[in-house]
Amino acid sequence: MKKALKFFFIFLAAVAAIYVVLVIIRMFHFYNLDKTNEQVVKIHNTKLTMDDVIGKNLPPDPGAEADKTIQGIDTNKNGIRDDVELAIFKAYPDSAKTRAVLLQYALALQMEAVQKVVNVGVVGEIANKQDRAFFCVAKIIPGDGESSVFVAIEKYGKFISDKQFNTEERKTAHKHFYSYLKSGRIDDSISCDIELLSLAD
To answer: So where does this one cross the membrane (predicted)?
Structure first.
């Protein structure tokens, strides 16, 4: 009888321990889910502004400080790395449309460098944001869809990528970030944050 009770209590203890472990696992799951959803909302709400396009609050040149970390410097807190932002304005001082699409693309690429929560859901949302930004770049290229995308890749995409991933550390971080990416749907229904028709050139 005593042995039976002993085994019974051991069994109950084991069941209780398993239950506690499952509860803890579920707590972590919902905590991570909340964090992911919070970041997804933040990603969706992060958009280029007209002030960014016209250079209302351009940052100072960060100099050598620009490349000391993967995140770089963002003095004006607009989500675009200062050295990349200044490079866009230097290369295209007379074209607001070109600046608009390139700044949006740079903003989307920088999201992966400053992201605190990195998982499949977050990476997928940022990748979607980057794809939308790239489709926006293609909108300033004359021609049909395929040819405009090709020109966008060759001319503008490379320009931003070379600026954004200009150190080995940044290239490595970029590859690591995308190791989380799974296939998903690209939402390109509204690709540009700024209505390009509202810009003079």
So the answer is: 7-28
> Distance of CA 9 to CAs 2, 13, 18, 22, 176, Å?
11, 6, 14, 20, 48
Whole-model pTM: value is 0.78
**Same domain for 151 and 59:** yes
The residue range of the domain holding 123 is 46-198
- Number of Cα atoms under 13 Å in the Cβ half of residue 92: 20
Residues 102/71, Cβ–Cβ less than 8 Å: no
Per-residue pLDDT averaged across 103-110, rounded?
A: 96
Total number of domains in the chain: 2
Q: CA-CA-CA-CA torsion for 69, 72, 75, 78, nearest 10 degrees?
A: -140
Which residue, among 199, 193, 73, has the nearest Cα to 134 in the 3D structure?
A: 193
